[in-house]
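ok trying this again, last paste got cut off
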Amino acid sequence: MFIVVEAKTGIKKRGKSMENALRRIRSVADLQFGKGVGERLFPETVEISYSKATGRIRYIILNGQRLATLRPTDGYLSLSIDAARTVVKQARFAQCFVTIRNDVSEFVAKGGDVFAAHVVKVDDAIRSKDEVIVLDENDQVLAVGRALLSSSEMMAFKVGVAVKVRHGCTEES
């Protein structure tokens, strides 16, 4: 059974409204990354934290680690590196992967943006502004970020930023 942390009081709750919250975040993940990803990414044991200001779902936490943030601007999920690794391991069929050349993987893992010239493979479903997971040619997670180009543009263009990286897997905090 998952837990919801009420923002204003910090009280942990369980119940019907919490089931609705879990169903909602799973539905968003399915819409954003592909059918079935939500259930694999968010097990029954997740904690859901609400915004103190708005009372809306804000963070999804598992074992004390933030998996995702539900963005208030568009209602989509922003993934953490841990969540990206879970998607790669458990939901390989997801439609959110950008694969880059191994020779630039260290730069991207440190938080550098992905340039179109470095993209070797991209899922066809990716559109501009989609949340993506950046992989090296060995399918290791390097970063998470937002696509600035569509999949066809990433493959066609030889200049420009393809993915604005939010978090690299070896970023120094």
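PB: full thing came through this time. The mean pLDDT is 88.
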